[in-house]
Design goal:
Elements (H helix, E strand, L loop, with lengths): L1 E5 L16 E5 L6 E2 L6 E2 L8 E4 L2 H10 L3 E5 L26
Parallel strand pairs: 1-6
Antiparallel strand pairs: 1-2, 2-5, 3-4
Length: 101
């Protein structure tokens, strides 16, 4: 059994950064999903793929995995790049694409 520990990024539907500080431990799937012959829905018999544990810190998640003998890999989050923007830049003389209105 192998797990992945990561810090989820914010979704495209979020404007803020709420719920992005938690760390998640997810088990990697052991089998591919297959289509159900009767309904046609994808599914797998792997119930561990449904387990998703959240922790406050990465160290807590690693301690949990070590305590329960779970092999894991840690994915560090990418740093957020903040580019300051000003509304006046839309009308700047040095703008690459001229304002067309």
């Amino acid at each position: 059994m192998r797990a992945r520990i990561y810090q989820p990024a914010k979704t495209a539907m979020q404007s803020g950064r709420a719920k992005t500080g938690k760390w998640v431990l997810e088990y990697e799937p052991t089998r591919r999903q297959q289509l159900d012959p009767l309904m046609g829905w994808p599914g797998a018999g792997d119930t561990m793929a449904q387990v998703r544990l959240t922790f406050d810190t990465c160290d807590d998640a690693m301690a949990y995995a070590d305590k329960h003998d779970i092999a894991y890999s840690v994915q560090q989050p990418k740093e957020r790049i903040v580019r300051p923007k000003a509304y006046a830049d839309n009308f700047a003389v040095s703008r690459k694409v001229p304002w067309s209105h």
